[in-house]
Prior knowledge:
Blueprint (H helix, E strand, L loop, with lengths): L2 H16 L12 H13 L1 H4 L8 H13 L2 H9 L8 H8 L1 H12 L3 H4 L10 H18 L7 E5 L3 E5 L10 E4 L2 H8 L8 E3 L11
Parallel strand pairs: 1-3
Antiparallel strand pairs: 1-2, 3-4
Helix pairs in contact: 1-5, 1-7, 2-4, 2-5, 9-10
Amino acid sequence: MTFSHSERQRLATLLLEKGPEEPTLCEGWDTRDLVAHLWIRENRPDAAAGMMISAVEDHLESTTAKVLERPYEQVVNDWRDGPGKFSPVRLVDRWMNLAEHFVHHEDVRRGQWMVDGTLVPARKLSEDENATLTKSVATTAKPMLKNADKPVRIVIPGRITLDIRPKGVEFGDVVTVKGEPGEVLLWLFGRDAAHLDITPEGAKVIRGGV
């Protein structure tokens, strides 16, 4: 049982509890849009390529429209079952989807923040889960901050400290981001609805998105 698999099950359960029209932290997406994204990403690589390649965007849009027409609960449960037996995603699920599932789980948990600024408490995670998320921070921090306009110091107390100065960024005032690994990971993926100590207070950094 991997963290990615556990998060898949928890997220699927939450999606079914919330229903198809709840807000998420993904701007412009409700829960129906989010689950369509998750399903396409694993089951339609031909269309998922449109998430990164502009020439395939129209194909992604048409495929998404068809998935959105399907019963919401059916799409959630199909995604919950995981990649097909012969899908290459099945072999890399534990690495490919570790951050993806965690971040999107929190997108749904904390979606009300997009409506009225309500910030729900962070989840209580086990030592093993926090250790796993710390490894994810360590591997994703640099690529997610490659376009940052300031040097960044990431501090996960008792675990790691990372100093990142993207190419072309001059030495200057460092933005320090301090918090638990899951909260730091959310921030790296462009979510502001995270429990963190950021100094200087109110500092903004260009970073990754969905």
